[in-house]
């Protein structure tokens, strides 16, 4: 079987002197779990567009593997296929997308996902009603933020939240499936 390759997350195939890919633009990809590959969890349109490295350390790769096995796979089994919008983010990528300075994405403990075969609300309600243990699940209207464990404590707080925007202000409230603002 041929080796799986992915675009180099350090240079995005733009630097001939890249130490990671040796100028080839490609590096080995691997499955983190049966249905999720490393390439899905490090891909970033922002990193590509701005030329920002988004290559995780080995420790972060292990955290991404745990995220996939312990959170994303059980969620996929419950709601069907998921598209990963955002997984790992280097500090530079996190800053470029306006992420929190303490974002779980920077540690490989979170992913923003879009369910393919049901609505965001249907997926949210199924996950909340399940026995899947998470640090956070946040309904963010066009994706679901899945936090596997807290980056510092490694605890699973069980936060179930919804994000709302009023002008430029973002707030987080306890998720209420009956809230009319949630479609």
Please tag this protein with its features.
single chain; 183 residues; alpha+beta; two-stranded antiparallel ribbon; 5 helices; 26% helix; 24% strand; globular
Plain-language structure description:
With 183 residues, this protein is α+β, with helices and mostly antiparallel strands. It is built from five helices and ten strands. It has helices at 38-42, 45-50, 58-79, 91-96, 120-128, and strands spanning 5-7, 26-28, 31-33, 36-37, 82-86, 110-115, 136-139, 144-147, 159-166, 169-174. The strands form three sheets. It has a six-stranded mixed β-sheet.
Mean pLDDT: 95
Low-confidence stretches: none
The H-and-E topology, N to C, reads as: EEEEHHHEHEHEEEE
Number of helices: 5
Overall geometric form: globular
Structure summarized in a few sentences:
Helix content is 26%, strand content 24%. The chain is α+β, with helices and mostly antiparallel strands. The longest helix is centred in the middle third of the chain and has 22 residues, at 58-79.
């Amino acid at each position: 079987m041929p080796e799986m390759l992915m675009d180099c997350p350090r240079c995005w195939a733009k630097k001939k002197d890249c130490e990671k890919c040796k100028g080839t633009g490609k590096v080995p990809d691997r499955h983190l779990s049966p249905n999720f590959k490393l390439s899905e969890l490090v891909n970033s349109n922002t990193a590509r567009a701005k030329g920002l490295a988004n290559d995780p350390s080995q420790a972060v790769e292990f955290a991404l593997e745990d995220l996939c096995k312990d959170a994303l796979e059980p969620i996929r089994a419950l709601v069907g296929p998921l598209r990963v919008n955002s997984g790992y983010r280097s500090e530079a990528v996190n800053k470029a997308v306006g992420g929190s300075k303490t974002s779980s994405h920077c540690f490989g403990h979170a992913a923003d996902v879009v369910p393919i075969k049901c609505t965001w609300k249907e997926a949210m309600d199924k996950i909340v009603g399940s026995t899947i243990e998470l640090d956070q699940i946040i309904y963010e209207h066009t994706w679901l933020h899945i936090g596997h464990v807290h980056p510092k404590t490694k605890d699973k707080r069980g936060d179930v939240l919804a994000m709302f925007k009023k002008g430029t202000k973002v707030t987080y409230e306890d998720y209420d499936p009956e809230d009319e603002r949630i479609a």
